[in-house]
Design a protein that fits this description.
Blueprint lengths: L20 E10 L2 E11 L4 E5 L6 H8 L7 E6 L2 E2 L5 H4 L2 E4 L11 H11 L4 H14 L15 H13 L5 E5 L7 H16 L3 E6 L2 H7 L2 E6 L2 E6 L1 H6 L4 E9 L2 H9 L4 E6 L3 E7 L1 H14 L3 E8 L3 H9 L6
Parallel strand pairs: 3-8, 3-9, 6-7, 7-8
Antiparallel strand pairs: 1-2, 1-4, 4-5, 9-10, 11-13, 11-14, 12-13
Bound molecules: adenosine-5'-triphosphate.
């Protein structure tokens, strides 16, 4: 372990707790625009935290402060209990930042790129060889490590970029929209690499405007819009903010009105609307309720042709909180 990776207890902020990252009331203005407006959150060891919001919401500005690239107008960032700032080289050592822009050399192989950046991190020769192998495994590029990176696909280059951020074994890895502009297959490979990190015990801060990625990767999600965290929680906690009701649509033939009356008797059914061949149900916990609903409708003489369940997602949460769609 090199000298600057030894935790220096004397510089720990006393009430920092055990979290790898504590962000307290960060504010950053650019001229008349408040890009980040009182943003606070915490990330524990092994936890993946997502900042989910549309373009211009303040995600990049937030992580630029967290990573010590720019100064906050007010508020504080603690990494491993120590205060981050642009001149805190010792604190920066504990984070790995994967920016949106690629920083790799096209005429070097994947392995050579990692070795080059590892030497910049002052990893000793043996430690470097070992870590480069580990990182190649983590990002799924072991088989292509000897190929020039100019021959890599866009997704492979992104994964190598993630690998560079991992070389010095940071406690916190920050990824800024790592899947923007890559094809679906590469996206899948990038998401798998990120999933592997929390297994390694790393804390991850992940920004995205794709709700599917936040749902899949993140233990907790902060929904950010116009510089403010509008709500925070696990996917399920956030979805409950919308009222937590699901919808079931039943199509079939028979006496729709009789079936509708029978379904209104079920405790899990909150509302039933009917038209000629379709019943629209508002229910609690549709996956559990659906079997009883189908049985009840069939007993009431409905011959079903189609059953569809719709559950609220983070897109509906964003709409509920801001009155806007998440996507442009
Ligand atoms: N250097 C800057 N100078 C002036 N305004 C800025 C600067 N950086 C960001 N902003 C503004 O601050 C707001 C937040 O931008 P930010 O880049 O943090 O959002 P974002 O959520 O990361 O979106 P994107 O994905 O588009 O980068 C935007 O209104 C943006 O125009």
């Amino acid at each position: 372990m090199s000298a600057d990776t030894v935790p220096d207890e004397s510089t720990r902020v006393p009430d920092a707790g055990d979290d790898v990252l504590v962000v307290r009331s960060l504010v950053r203005r650019f001229g008349g625009i408040t890009a980040v407006d009182d943003v606070s959150f915490r990330i524990g060891q092994g936890e993946t935290y997502g900042l989910l919001g549309p373009n211009g919401a303040g995600k990049t500005t937030t992580i630029s402060m967290v990573a010590g690239l720019i100064r906050a107008d007010s508020g504080a960032t603690l990494v491993n209990g120590r205060e981050m700032g642009p001149d805190r080289v010792d604190v920066k050592h504990h984070i790995g930042l994967v920016p949106q822009n690629l920083a790799i050399y096209p005429d070097l192989t994947g392995r050579e790129n990692l070795r080059y950046f590892g030497r910049l991190q002052r990893l000793g020769r043996e430690a470097l060889d070992r870590r480069v192998d580990e990182v190649l495994e983590l990002i799924g590029l072991t088989d292509r490590a000897g190929d020039l990176t100019k021959e890599y696909s866009g997704g492979m280059k992104r994964r190598l970029n993630i690998g560079i951020g991992l070389l010095h074994q940071p406690r916190l890895l920050i990824l800024d929209e790592p899947t923007v502009g890559v094809d679906p297959q590469s996206r899948h490979a990038i998401l798998e690499s990120v999933e592997a990190l929390s297994v390694e015990g790393m804390a991850v801060l992940y920004t995205t405007h794709y709700m599917e990625e936040a749902e899949r990767l993140c233990d907790r999600i902060g929904i950010i819009d116009e510089g403010r965290i509008q709500a925070e929680g696990s996917r399920d906690e956030l979805v409950r903010l919308t009222g937590g009701v699901d919808h079931i649509r039943l199509n079939g033939s028979g006496d729709i009105d009789v079936a509708a009356d029978a379904l209104r008797e079920l405790p899990e059914v909150e509302q039933v609307d009917a038209d000629r061949r379709t019943l629209y149900l508002t229910v609690r916990d549709a996956p559990t309720a659906v079997a009883r609903i189908v049985t009840s409708a069939t007993r009431a003489g409905l011959s079903l042709t189609d059953v569809e369940i719709t559950r609220p997602d983070l897109e509906s949460v964003f709409l509920h909180l801001t009155g806007k769609a998440l996507r442009d």
